[in-house]
Design brief:
The complex is a heterodimer of chains A (535) and B (249). Chain A is α+β, with helices and mostly antiparallel strands and 535 residues long. Helix content of chain A is 52%, strand content 18%. In chain A, the strands form four sheets. Chain A has a six-stranded mixed beta barrel, surrounded by four helices. Chain A is elongated and about 115 Å long. The two termini of chain A are 26 Å apart. The chains are: A alpha+beta (535), B alpha/beta (249).
């Protein structure tokens, strides 16, 4: 009993010990905040990585693909039909994206994934990432509601808004064309300057209204012998009857490919400048599946923009319509008319059984032709990097608490020295060495409990109000701490795992107790006569 | 054990209550051995008020520490009711200190963090487990209050030691030593830090406890006039018993 009484009194009267509590507290709070934010980030990131990949992917090693998707899908279903919820064939190939923005041709390397949008949306949350299915937020206000209803299956048609944009734009182009034609009639000598002129006229206009890529010139100027040199085979395929008709190729383009962030000079806020929007036509170049592969350019309409939040995907991936990609690449067998694909995306009923399914699939898809992987295996290095990062961070942060532990040790040692006489008194009154030791051990535990308790509360409060805190810091420093255009998150994601909080708190308490063992043992070993004599 | 009894200087008919037999104790000061006690024999009868007098350095405090099991002798034995107690395991000695001996020190040695009543009750807290203490706390508190009452400090129960005067602190220390109902009270210079009048009060209190409660008291002092108030006086010099006085109370 005296142990607890004394321990409680020491706790209340030794303010120097409170200093060591503060260090424990800060350590615990920091660990909780950092862990919550890290796991929030990594959770979001996993969601996003997973979102565009399917649970399990069967890929052919060759870019030429393997014929007959129906047969391949049947093979997959045969071995693990009980586990497969949905399956969709895709063609994945590298390519280039070209589009005209502000008078310049912009070229980006891309990975083209030919998909069936309905099938793809069954194997993963495709529509969550598509711009037209999501409202647009600015400062937590909806500035544009979603363009498509949640019931609408993803498809290759333009949304009404994009269609209107396309019509307006093509009308404008038409008007220019007519104006130029008129100009040409009046002054035939000027025709030479036509392409340059066109660019010159278009460029200022695009900055004034919405930035637009006059890639359509290819189509519109198809019969113009002076049209720009990028003109390929595509224009010939486009039927000129309906001037607004979409190109045969349809794309969902990663947002990073067609936009760049800039700071609004008026408000100072970061905004995205769209270089190509849904409704614009762009050029896609890839290679044919033949041997040797040949250049295969085609014209495509951007139907939608997707934003997965993974820069790696958003600035690299383009989803396009599977059939057109197969046509362009010549992946249709001339004899049977069967089409080839390069991979199967599979969604499982229960992802925990993925390892088993992968093994079963490996038995039917020969490893010399196919690679069967779960999405985690495909993104293994990235996920491992995140895990290692958070493990290292935890070690470093735990060192902070360990430092606090040494603080406790030093302060306790001082307290033991200061309390030497009292320890002698207690021993004279019959307290055992263990009893004296447990005074200091429970004192240490009490410090740990108080420190980690306050730390947990502080940390959880910080995590709860992290976005408000971020705003305050941004306001004070005038510098955006958390830039959503960089991270793609509207706010800082956090995830608090009770097990993490408990283990951090227990760890801190353990350190506090361990730090008090040494001083407590010294106290216990004190000779009462010597202790009583000390003044 | 009985073979050394004959060596005792004074032979009392019954077994002495507390007995020191041929105690040797030296302290190591750096490499040098400093002998403090050299073959001390002492017997204290039950209910006796004995004072131990000697100059500083004569070893009187050390003798008292040895008798109270705060330290253990190099050679020799401490016997309580004829049974050797100095070689017992630490746990038992702790218990004996708690139950058999009461200590009063020159510098009072109250715990500064605790109030007067908490200080007084401390030996009982040490004696009982937390649970036992908790279930009997009323009774134990009453006992402590009774002791405080005996030393005349009932009005200062909630005060901290630093709010008490020297005499009050010493009374509190006496109350603390009595609360565990000891058989022997060991007082080390109980008046050493007090003025003459207050000191006298303390001695009177000790005398009263001795006569009224038949408490065995062993008092260490260097003050001749105070030592004279005890029933018997043992003079120590250079670690040996110099002289024994029988004196009626």
């Amino acid at each position: 009993m005296y142990k607890y009484l004394l321990c409680q009194r020491y706790l209340r009267t030794r303010f120097i010990a409170l200093a060591s509590i503060i260090s424990v507290m800060l350590g615990v709070a920091t660990m909780i905040v950092v862990n919550s934010v890290m796991s929030g980030f990594s959770h979001q990131m996993r969601d996003r990585i997973h979102g565009l990949l399917a649970d399990v992917v069967v890929e052919s090693h060759s870019l030429d693909g393997v014929t007959d998707p129906d047969m391949l899908m049947r093979m997959a279903r045969e071995v693990s039909d009980d586990q497969i919820e949905a399956i969709t064939p895709t063609v994945e190939v590298y390519g280039m994206l070209n589009f005209n923005f502000a008078g310049q041709w912009i070229t980006k390397p891309v990975t083209l994934i030919g998909i069936d949008p309905v099938g793809k949306s069954k194997v993963g949350p495709l529509r969550d990432f598509l711009d037209s299915y999501n409202p647009v937020y600015e400062d937590n206000q909806v500035v544009r509601s979603s363009l498509r209803g949640p019931d609408e299956e993803p498809n290759w048609k333009l949304s009404d808004e994009a269609m209107q944009y396309r019509i307006d734009k093509i009308d404008r182009q038409q008007w220019y064309k007519e104006q130029l034609a008129a100009l040409e009639q009046e002054n035939p000598g000027q025709t030479d300057l036509n392409p340059a002129n066109l660019d010159g006229v278009t460029a200022p206009e695009s900055t004034e209204a919405t930035p637009e890529a006059p890639a359509e010139t290819n189509t519109l100027m198809a019969d113009d012998p002076f049209a720009n040199p990028f003109q390929g085979t595509a224009p010939a395929e486009v039927a000129p009857e309906d001037p607004y008709e979409l190109a045969k190729g349809r794309l969902y383009v990663g947002i990073g490919l067609v936009s760049y962030p800039y700071r609004d000079p008026e408000t100072g806020k970061m905004k995205l400048m769209m270089m190509a929007k849904p409704g614009d036509d762009v050029r896609v170049s890839t290679v044919t599946a033949g041997r040797p592969p040949e250049h295969a350019p085609y014209l495509a309409t951007v139907v939608d923009v997707f934003k997965s939040g993974m820069t790696e995907y958003d600035s690299n991936l383009i989803f396009c319509n599977l059939e057109e990609l197969q046509n362009v690449r010549g992946m249709i067998s001339p004899e049977s008319g069967k089409r080839a694909i390069t991979s199967l995306h599979i969604k499982l009923k229960d992802y925990r059984k993925a390892g088993d399914v992968v093994e079963r699939l490996k038995s039917v898809f020969p490893p010399d032709q196919f690679a069967v992987k779960t999405w985690e295996q495909k993104q293994g290095p990235l996920l491992a990097a995140v895990e290692i990062e958070s493990a290292i961070l935890n070690v470093l942060l735990f060192l902070i608490i360990a430092v606090a532990g040494f603080g406790i040790l030093a302060i306790f040692y001082m307290i033991v020295v200061e309390k030497t006489r009292d320890i002698g008194i207690l021993k004279a009154l019959g307290a055992s060495s263990n009893g004296v030791m447990s005074i200091f051990l429970s004192y240490g535990l009490a410090l740990g409990v108080v420190g980690s308790g306050v730390g947990v509360v502080l940390g959880l409060l910080f995590v709860h109000y992290i976005n408000e805190i971020e705003k305050v810091i941004t306001y004070i420093t005038g510098r955006k701490v958390f830039d959503e255009t960089i991270y793609y998150f509207p706010e800082i994601p956090t995830a608090v795992h009770p097990s993490m909080v408990i283990s951090v708190a227990l760890g801190a308490m353990l350190i506090a107790v361990l730090a008090s063992v040494f001083p407590a043992r010294r106290a216990a070993r004190l000779n009462p006569v010597v202790a009583l004599r000390s003044e | 054990m009985a073979d050394t009894v004959e060596m005792a200087d004074t032979v009392t008919p019954a077994t002495p209550h507390l007995e020191a037999v041929a105690l040797d104790k030296s302290y190591r000061n750096n490499a040098e051995e400093v002998p403090v006690l050299r073959g001390v024999n002492l017997q204290v009868a039950k209910g006796e008020f004995l004072s131990l007098i000697g100059q500083s350095g004569s070893g009187k405090s050390t003798l008292m520490h040895l008798l109270g099991l705060l330290d253990s002798p190099d050679i020799g034995e401490i016997r309580l009711d004829g049974k050797r107690i100095d070689h017992l395991p630490a746990k038992t000695r702790d218990e004996l200190r708690n139950r058999v001996f009461g200590f009063v020190f020159q510098f009072y040695h109250l715990l500064p963090e605790l109030t007067l009543i908490e200080n007084v009750i401390a030996p009982l807290m040490i004696r009982y487990s937390t649970w036992e203490y908790w279930s009997r706390r009323r009774e134990l508190r009453d006992r402590a209050k009774e002791m405080i009452d005996q030393v005349g400090l009932s009005h200062r129960i909630k005060h901290r030691p630093n709010q008490l005067s020297g005499g009050e602190m010493q009374r509190a220390a006496i109350a603390r030593s009595l609360v565990s109902e000891p058989q022997v009270l060991l007082a080390d210079e109980p008046t050493g830090n007090l003025d003459v009048d207050t000191g006298k009060g303390i001695i009177e209190l000790l005398q009263r406890l001795n006569t009224e409660h038949d408490l065995t008291i062993l008092m260490v002092t260097h003050d001749e006039s105070i030592a004279q108030r005890a029933q018997r006086l043992v003079r120590l010099k250079k670690g040996q018993i110099e002289k024994l006085h029988e004196r009626a109370a």
